[in-house]
Each structure stands twice: as structure tokens, then as C-alpha cells.
Amino acid sequence: MASSSGGDFKRKFMDGADEHEMRLKRQQIFDHGSHFESPSGSTAMYRNPYVYKGQPPPFPVIRVRGLPFECVKSDILDFFYGLQILDILFVHKGVRFTGEAFCVLAYPLQVDFAIQRNMRNMGRRYIEVFKSTRQEYYSAVANEVLETTRSGSRAKSNDESWRHMESGS
Q1: Rounded to 5°, angle at Cα 123 from 127 and 156
Q2: pLDDT digits (tens, 9 = 90+) for 38-62
Q3: Residue pair 99/68 in contact by the 8 Å Cβ criterion
Q4: Are 133 and 59 in contact, with CB atoms under 8 Å apart?
Q5: How far apart are the C-alpha atoms of 48 and 60, rounded to whole Å?
Q6: Which helix or strand (DSSP H or E) is residue 89 part of?
Q7: Total-model pTM
Q8: CA geometry: angle at 27 spanning 21 and 31, to 5°?
């Protein structure tokens, strides 16, 4: 039975009439363009989706929510293993950590890979990962600076671990 269906396949698509028909269809696509073709003539399949004409690329930042209160930057680096994180900003309210953070990634494409880790566990917690914007990140930075100047110092938990990681101790 399997051999007859394989034979039907060959007869249907490999005989001279169907092959001729396919050549005509291909020729029409090349002659008249297809929906994959851009005005410049290059196919969309081969164009770089991260080339932005006349505007800068999107700012590669994500917002992470649901972090354990004892979370440190090395935990986030482990959670996003394989992605290049340039900056991690823990969000505080007063001197208390809110369980949220912003992560600036090296490339816009990495945002999509980070989003794939949404609802994965860090310890016993489900971590939510969202796309964010440059404005949200800058607002969070401004709030952190304002909170730090108001309170005089930040809780030691998150920022101290980053300094130890950078110094290698």
C-alpha cells in the first residue's frame, strides 16, 4: 500500500504535465514578483529584520517580575544564561526590593530569546518576563537615583553581590 501511494505521488508531481505547469508558475513568480519581494527586489526571506531605515533599532530591554526577595544579579545572569546582559537594575520601593528588575541586553534579537523564558522557575518562583521600553527603563533609573538620594543608601542585598562579582571576590 505504501508503495502505491509513493507511486501516486511521483506520477502526480513528476510527470511531464505537472512539471511543465510548475515551471510556468515559477516563471510567473519571477516575472511578476511575489508577495515576498520588496520594492528593492530582494526577497523578504533574506532581508535582515533588524535593519531599521531612518530610525534607530529598538532599545533591548526587558522587565522581569516575580523575583525572589533574596535574588542577586548572579541569579538573573544564571536565569538568562546564554544571553548577554549589559545592565541589571533592581527596582526598590524605599529600601525594599519589589521583586522586579530591568535587564538591558546586548542586541534587540536577544529580547525575543529572553521572552521565551517567561513563566520559568527561579527557585520556587515563577518569573515573568516582559518586553519593556527605553522610557520605562530610564524612568526606573531616575526613580532609583531619586530613592537613593532620599534614603541616603540602598539595601545591601542586590547591589553588593554585583560588586563582588565584578571584583572576582
Answers
A1: 85
A2: 444 444 444 555 566 778 889 999 9
A3: yes
A4: yes
A5: 17
A6: strand 85-93
A7: 0.61
A8: 145
- Spell 25-64 as b/e; 16+ CB within 10 A means b: eeeeeeeeeeeeeeeeeeeeeeeeeeeeeeeeeebbbbbb
Q: Please answer whether residues 148 and 155 qualify as being in contact, where contact means their C-beta atoms are separated by less than 8 angstroms.
A: no
C-alpha cell at 36: 515576498
Tell me: the pLDDT tens digits for 94-112?
A: 889 999 999 999 999 999 9
d(CA 67, CA 39): 46
Complete domains list, the chain, with CATH: 2-46 (no CATH), 61-167 (3.30.70.330)
Spatial separation of the C-alpha atoms in residues 65 and 132, rounded to whole Å: 12
Q: How far is it, in rounded angstroms, from Cα 116 to Cα 110?
A: 10
